[in-house]
Amino acid sequence: MNARASRAGRVERRARRCARGLAFAIALAPLAAAAAPPADLDCRALGPQAVARVLKPWPAPRVLALHGSVPIVTMEPFAAFLEAMGYPRTSLAHPADGARTLSSYVDARRFAGEIAWHYEREGMMPMLVGHSQGGMVVLKALHELAGRNGPVPVFDPLTGEAQPRTWIVDPRTGARREVTDLVVDFAAVMATGSLPRLLLAQWDMLPLLRDVPDSVADFTGFSVPWDPIAGTGPDPAPFHARGSARVRSVVLPARYGHVGLPDLADLASRPDARAWIEAWRPGAAAPPAALADVPNLMQAADLWYSIRTHWCEAVKRGAGAHARAPS
Fold first, then answer.
1. Among residues 190, 210, 92, which one has the least CA distance to residue 134?
2. Which of 40, 183, 203, 310 is in the most buried spot, having the most CB atoms within 10 Å?
3. Domain ranges of the chain
4. How far is CA 273 from CA 82, 299, 304, in A?
5. What was the pLDDT predicted at 322?
6. 3-state DSSP: the chain helix, strand, coil percent, rounded to 5?
């Protein structure tokens, strides 16, 4: 090994140690006073008391929410709903400008590289939610993370520039990992259909629009029957896992409108709707008659269940890392 290669190896090892230390400092510094969650905490059966008492003292994964091509309704009401349900405000805001709704006119490789940046820097994998074209970007970014178009550079959203590397230092293990080896914990798309892809000449996504790669662990796809904007008929096409991803296809009531699907903010302030949302689990019965006509109730309950579950799982992992971190 020549001197230049040896020096480069030392620089990379130093970078790994520094990056790992930064991730631990950012992700674990607020946790000194937080009580560790009970070892037997069932993340899939959390009530509102557990969210308030167990989860809120801990950081939460950043939620990256992308609105549609014509954001008549942005993802801001969705973020307001999550905050009202107990999700930390800071984890809903983009670090560059504080925005809680992101444009879907973004390059998917750049977005995939930003996901890697967040994970390396914050120690928690972001959760992704996209509406309409925003859902298309989420799916396209997942395919980029799966390596569809080769290595993906890390993208720094604070500088607005790609970094000269296609790997990160894993904050959990300290090991070097390619961006295309990362797995997002949870992603969801709402009313993402094929008709806009045709009209907007996004033809490369047509064969991939219902295929979910292994770059996500849990994925939920929401569709509305007879959605004239998404181009769905009476039986929207389901989403399919290409491999090991756990994929759920949820068909919402036909009375739910495409444009207003992210408009969830008022549901958290209505006591009967909130109680039903907090009690909801996959496979639950339909809402009672008093709530049957409440718009967007179904996807609100479904999304809150998944997001709080993965928040809980991230907290349990973080608590374990905090316990193992050197003093």
1. 190
2. 310
3. 12-27+44-322
4. 14, 12, 13
5. 44
6. 45, 15, 45
